[in-house]
Amino acid sequence: MSNLILKGELVTLRPIEVDDAKVLVPLINREELKEYLSLVYPLNNFLEEEWIKRNAINQNNIVLVIEFEGNVIGTAGFHSIDWINRSAEYGIAIYDPNYWNRGIGTEVTMLMLKYAFEYLNLNRVWLRVVESNQRAIHVYEKCGFIKEGKERQARYYRGHYWDFVRMSILAEEYWRIRR
To answer: Quick one: angle between helices 21-28 and 45-57, nearest 10?
Structure first.
């Protein structure tokens, strides 16, 4: 895993390192991101470094850093990997809004799906996205994810409860769009 590097036309995905915390923490703590992240508490370097270390030894989580032109701009990963049922939860965050709406999320998601289905032999990749994040929902649909349902009022943010949209893509669906 430590040698894994996925390259696209726009980005490079590589394993997250403890040193990345110094770059990620200021980005994650930006107010405009709180609407989309489940994190509402402020992070510090210690907490982020500990999270990185825990994920590095956990066989059920794979977290990669998103680099654009040599700059760390976010993370993508698989969480709660179920090796028996061959499924995982997908998560992506581009923490710097200057990199939104540039096709980066689509490329990262397609690279991660390739990794999931062609290397990890997963059968199902699923995610939850807050209903207000229409930009992300559009990216996921473009990459082949299908809406499965809603988790009603599962996210509280600034005095309002929001639904989570659940989406997934199966290996057979991935292979159909890859042809």
So the answer is: 120
